[in-house]
Amino acid sequence: MQKRIIIFDTTLRDGEQSPGCSMNLEEKCRMAAVLEALGVDVIEAGFPVASHGDFEAVHAVAQIVKNATVCGLARAKPADIEAAAKAIAPAPRRRIHTFIATSPLHMKHKLHMEPWQVLEAITASVTLARSFTDDVEWSAEDAVRTEPDFLCRAVEAAIRAGAQTINIPDTVGYALPTEYGSIFAMLLARVPGADSVTFSTHCHNDLGLAVANSLAGVANGARQVECTINGIGERAGNAALEEVVMAIRTRNDLLPFATGVDTTRITGASRTLSAITGFSVQPNKAIVGANAFAHESGIHQDGVLKHAQTYEIMTPESVGLARSDIVLGKHSGRHAFRARLGALGYTLDEVAVGAAFARFKALADRKKEVFEEDIIALVDDEIAASGEALQLAEMEVRAGTEGPQVCTLSMRVEGQRREARAEGNGPVDAIFKAIRQIVAHPGARLTLYQVHAVTGGTDAQAEVTVKLAEEGRTVVGQGADPDTLVASARAYLHALSKLLVKRGRANLNEA
Ligand SMILES: [Zn+2]
Questions:
Q1: How far is the CA of 153 from the centre of ligand 1 (A)?
Q2: CATH 3.30.230 is right for the domain spanning 298-384
Q3: Contacts of 449 (CB under 8 A, 6+ apart)
Q4: Which of 10, 317, 356, 440 has its C-alpha lying 20 to 30 A from 38's C-alpha?
Q5: CA–CA separation, 468 vs 185, rounded Å?
Q6: Which fold does the domain 387-503 belong to in CATH?
Q7: Is residue 8 a contact partner of residue 71, using CB atoms and an 8 Å limit?
């Protein structure tokens, strides 16, 4: 029995498809480097035919990833498969992932195809994909609602045409674990050649069962799991990589398999993704939630202090969460700061460390105690803002009971300094209006403005999240600063920078 489970990460494709999680080329590359360091086997980088931006992002990821296999998604259409082949060409290991729906519902209403036509399309698409790479994965979209006999025939056609990985997605998140597992058992028992290919799970979390279903697939013979960091993905999301990997590791007695994932990098990967997308994970989220390793009740705390295993089934260290609470102060040096960033799971280049360190020093001067959460917020903000077209330079706001509130702001637009002054209905309104004066974006609506205190205390840093929507595009920005208004301006500029990238930077200097 094959003991190795292939971890196929689709954070950059299925995950990126979820509302508000879209990433630009630079963000996808940053995330791909994190996934490679994490040790995933396959990185599905995007859907190259979907747009020029998607193609470019997959192509860029294929140029930087050296160890993992880079995968591009394609429908059963020549143009899709050719675009995927071209996009992944620079990668040392390349996979084309082609799919077609096999359920009666999808064949009839979406594809308008007869079952025999679908079988022909499977043969043609897999054959074409194989002409570009030996590593071809085929998926039966909506497999769970496909008639078993037809699913067997479809899988057989894909294997005959040369697919080496057969993916059985629960596209709509409908399956229960026993049911999902039995599909793999059936295919392995009935389909000729099934023992020569790798079966794969792909589960959605609409009923909260994505991870349970994936593991049921593994228990019944699947040897690849498709998943995403933090479980992001369409609707309720995909199976969470960190949960799948830690379940296999923690319950190795019942799941005697291995993955190539360095689990100590899980926390860092989760944080990087949250910083890039502005999607923070819920505090009680398994493995990566803020409370996942917090023992609040007295009895539990006492037990953990006496012997960690009393209430801990896995250690915080095993997922890369540093246990110590020692905070850094204003006398801490750059070396200690860099070491702490490493312990928190960040891998930054020297320039980024330098910029983050300068901000840390400024924060330490203003705030008595600098907690780990402060450093995380600050570094995330720094990562988000680096290299962006719009940068905050200086800002002054007059607020109080006597209105109107006024903001005077100066910022850099692609390096050029610009200034504006605006009145508003409240200080935040005044800030956003001043920014709008400098970079016009009349079609964009503010759909979310949210403030979190990073830690307790009135001197806590504020972490602000801003969401902008324009013509169906949604972008998220985050900013952190001890001054809530400065954090607000940073978050807004971060979101607006992303919007400009999405628009192709048109009319950047029209105001
Ligand atoms: Zn999916």
A1: 22
A2: no
A3: 428, 464, 465, 466, 467, 488
A4: 356
A5: 46
A6: Double Stranded RNA Binding Domain (3.30.160)
A7: yes
Identity of the residue numbered 329: G
CA separation for the pair 455, 452 (Å, rounded): 9
Q: What is the pLDDT of residues 74-103, one digit of tens each?
A: 999 999 999 999 999 999 999 999 999 999
Distance from the alpha carbon of residue 11 to the mean position of ligand 1, in angstroms: 10
* Residue extents of the structural domains in the chain: 6-277, 298-384, 387-503
User: Which tokens in the block code for residue 301?
Assistant: 């705390």
Sole residue written with tokens 């509302």: 19
Residues 8-21: tens digit of each pLDDT: 999 999 999 887 78
Q: How far is the CA of 225 from the centre of ligand 1 (A)?
A: 12
CB atoms within 10 A of CB 356: 24
Q: Residue 2 Cα, ligand 1 centroid: separation in angstroms? A: 25
**Domain 6-277: CATH architecture, name and number where available:** Alpha-Beta Barrel (3.20)
Distance 100 CA to ligand 1 centre (A): 13
Residue 231 CB contacts under 8 Å (≥ 6 apart), including other chains:
205, 210, 237, 238, 239, 240, 241, 243, 285
Compute the distance from residue 14 Cα to the ligand 1 centre, in Å: 5
pTM to 2 decimals?
0.80
**φ, ψ dihedrals at 287, nearest 5°:** 70, -50
